[in-house]
Structures are given as structure tokens and as C-alpha cells.
User: Fold these one by one.
Assistant:
Number 1:
Amino acid sequence: MRTTNSMLSRQLMSNLSLNYNKLMKHQAQVSTGKAFQRPSENPYNAVVMIDLRAKLGRIEQYKKNVTDAKAAVYDTELALTSINDSLIDIKALINRGLNGTYSLDERISMAEEISAIKESIVSQLNREFAGKYLFGGLNSSDTPLKISEGALSYNGEELLTMTEEEFIEFKNQKININISKGTDIDIALPAVEITGYGEDNMINVLDQLISELKKEAPDSQKILSLDEKNNKFISNIQNNISRQGGRTTRLEAMEKKLIDSEFNLKNLYSDIEGVDYEKAITDYKMAEMIYNAALAVGAQIIQPT
């Protein structure tokens, strides 16, 4: 079969188009730093990159959750430390109150100081963080401790009349934050866990102490009994401070793990998406040389008609 100029032209244009596409591909790699511009150029790696982006997105959310949880736990620990210091101050005042040499006026002054400390403790248990109440349990949008007609209530339930079942229900409320796949951490600490319930709740104990100190002849045995209850509150708070420290340690370990995972995934993503610039430039120069050579050869093969 005779080869015509038309056939040569078509073959030449086809080869030129192929070489030009290769040239443009390498040029795009050099200019963008990406191994491919469209998923169709490398379907397998495109799918892998989609999966990596999804994992990186989840890690970013986990990191945010860990950061928020750490801040809430730290703020809770600060509040507990303040309450612990307040109760230790009250213990010192109790010891002074047991001294029979103090006058009624001096003991009234001590009682007023304890009353101010009590208000500070309630304020700490109503502490807010990021618009939510730290010690509110599941009801974090409303003030947990409220005083109405002289009675103190937690989330609508009066502490003095709260039953054991209600206390356990409040105490066991959890606020779980997802910090990694399949891993949650509970950051809830309801105020009743600190105050207790019934007649021996912290606020009622402090009210009894205030009342006793204001008497002409305070009952030293009752004051000692109230002091023992105060010691139990201190011990409970210190245990909770330790638990908060444990939560912080766990969150910091998870944060490090997430940062390491993010670093590794980003490196893998970069390896798949990116190009070796030296190789890319070499390939581009080679493709450019081949294309120019094809143009030159084509000009000689296809004679003007």
C-alpha cells in the first residue's frame, strides 16, 4: 500500500500530540509539585490520598477534642484546688474556735469568715468554662448549685432532702469526649460528688459550724465532729484532684500520639502526592527535547504540497 502525505501527516500529528501531552504532564509536575493533577492519571494513589485526607480530618477533630478536654480538666483542677485550700482555712478557724480564750465577738468574726469562704466554695462549684458549667454533670447549661429560700439545691434537687438513689444517679452522670477511634474519656465531675448529700452535705456542715461558733457556749464536741466531717471533705477533694491529674496525663499522652500519627500521615500523603523535583525537571527537559526533535523531524518528513 502506498504511503501518502495525508497518512504521514496524521501519524506525525498523533505522535506530536502524544509527546506534547507528556511534556505538559511533566511541566505540570514541575510547576505544581504534584505527581498527578487528576485522579484518572493515578486512580490507586488518588483513592489512597482520599483515605489519608479523611484520616487527617479525623485526627484534627480528635486533637481539638483533646485540647478542649485538657482545658476543662485543668480548670476543674484549679477549682478543686481552690476549694481544698478553702476547707483547710476553715480547719484552721475551727482549731482557733475550740480555744476557750476567744470571746463571743471573736468567734462571730470567725463564723462570718467561714460564711464568706462557704460562698466562695459555692461560687467555685458554679464555675463556668467555655459557656458551660464544669460541675453541672449532664446539665452543663444551667447553674448547678442554687439557693432558694435558704435551701441549697443541685440541678433542682435540694441537698438536704436528696435521696441516696438521686445522689448515685447524679454522681454517675458521664460526659464522654471522643479522643481517638474507639476511645472516650469521661470529664464529668458533678458538684454533689464534692458536696455530698443529706444532712452531712458540705454546705450544711459549714452552716452548722457557723451557728455553733455564734453561740454563747459552743459545744466543743460538736465542733470536733464537724471538723472530722470537714477532714473527709478535704480527703475526697484531694482524691478528685489526683484523678484530674490522671486525666491530664492520659490526655497529654493521647495528644502526643495524635501528633505523631498526624506527622506520619502527612509525610505519607506528601510522598504520594509530591514529586522528586530533580527527577521531575530531568523528565521535563527530556520530554521537551523529544518534542522539539519530533517537530524538527516532522518538518523534514512532511514536504510542502
Note: The beta strands are 128-129, 132-133, 145-148, 151-154, 157-158, 176-180, 183-186.
Number 2:
Amino acid sequence: MVGSSANNAASSLDLHLASITQQLLSEALSLSTRKAYLRTWNMLLELCRSTSTSFIFPCSLAIICNFISHLHSQSLSPSTILPHVSAISYVHKICNVTDPTQQFLVRKILKGAQNLKKSSDSRLPITKPILLRILAALQHTVSDKNGIILLRAIFLLAFHGFFRLGELVSRIKESFHLVFQRNDINFQPNHGVQIILKHYKTMRNNQPITIMLTPSADLSICQVQALRLYITAFGHTSGPLFSFLSGHPVTHSFVTQQLKLALAFCDLNPAQYKGHSFRIGAATEAAKLGYSENYIQQLGRWHSNAIKRYIRINSFSL
């Protein structure tokens, strides 16, 4: 990962590992994690090049701190920055050199990013009334019928299932296998739908979970009906659940762009509503209906008190 840009400090690691030992070490990380770690190092090297900073290994404390600040300036959340820091930490530990990410200054800078994020989170919830407006707007912002069917299924599933948008559609092609696949969805005799969630943010011990969604009494907002209509119209039998008629997977950027167009048509500020607003709106609606905080935490698969930040009763008129 470090490559030829490193100085001789890393060359002291000369363990003469046998090929099978190297293979075991490589298999300690999943392929997706190895790719993510490599992407982090490429980002770090690019920052050094763009700022005319000499890259050395082990990394200096200043380089790590400035890297974190750079990620924060790119509007990355603390939860997104932490994996990048972990990637840097991992390589230092593997090379048996001092890990600068464990320094007090780094921890405080991360804490500062976390505090700023809490105070600057301006995302508003997409509640049921707003969702209905967005769905109606699709008739005016999407030119073809199949596009409307596709987006209705995504928006309604994200809302009713408390799903992160990244669990439904991927940002990059390397992660297409991590989103919902067609064979993760099964319709039940009672007209509900069973969803196997195999990859999610708070996943523990690589254990998938099963989510059962029942039809909504309000057909205008029924996620099961929307999902059934989508699958019938598109006819996909394998690959990512949400794919275009061509078979190419639907991307995160496509969905967020279409969401922005619909929001603008509704005279709502697209800057205040993101893909995560469906999840925030679901939590808000559940609280409005009187569900307990613990039950909402189970519905949204939260393993912490993060749910408290997602219930926004005061953000819309009751």
C-alpha cells in the first residue's frame, strides 16, 4: 500500500514471510476492505501531491491531522472519516512502526469534527406528507413511465424499511454486490415481502437479518405494491435489485439527482433533504404515531442512541 513513496523507515520490516504466510495475512481482510484501504492511501498521496508535501513513512502527525481536516472540508461525516483513519492505522501496525493515528492530537481533531457535524446537521426528514408530494412530482420530473415505477419503489422502500440509501443503490461499481440483490427479495403468501439484509452499517459477526414488510392500507404509499410493480415491469431475475431495463445497476448519484429534481418541483430546498432523509422521516413518523424509542431503534437497526438525533418532531407541523 505504501509504495515507492515511502522512506527507508519501513524497510526495517524484513520478516522474510513465506508465501503461505503472506496469503494468510492478505486474507485477514476482505477484498472490499483491502480496496477501501488502498483507496485511502491513494487519497492521502494525492493530498500530499496537491499541497506539495513530501510523503514519508511512517506518516508524520501533521500529515494525518491535515488529512482528517481535508476529509472534513470535503463534507465527509465523522463516521466516514474514521474508516480512512483506520486504514492508515492498519498499515502502520502491520509494518510494526509507531501509529500516529493514536496520538492525542488526532483524537481531539476527530472529536472536533464530530462536534461540528452534530451542530451542522441540517438534513430534514422526508415525512409521509412530503413523501406523497415527491411521489406526485415524479409524474412531472421523470419523462418515462418505467423511470417513475423504479423511483417510486426505491423511495417507498427506503422510507418504510428505514433503509440507508446506500443499502439500496451503490455509489461505485465495486460495491454493486453489497446492495440488495434480486434474490434477497421474496414475496409472501400474505402479500407481504421478506427482505434479507446481508450488508449494513451496524452489522455484527457477518450475520444477515430478515425484514418483513406488510402492505400499507394506503395504496398511494404502499411499498409492497410499488416493489411488486417494479419487479413485474423490469423482469430482472438476478443481480442488484434495482437495475435499469438495460441491466445496469441503478447508482446512488442517479437516485439523489432525481430526488433533487422532485424536491425542486415541490418548492422544497434540495440542500436540506438528502437520501438519508427517508430514514430520518421514518423515525420521525414512527415517533409521531407513538412508538417507543426502543422499538424505533429496532426498526431502524440502530445499536446506539443515534436514534435520538433522528426523531425530528419539531421539524414539521403536527
Note: The longest strand covers residues 193-197.
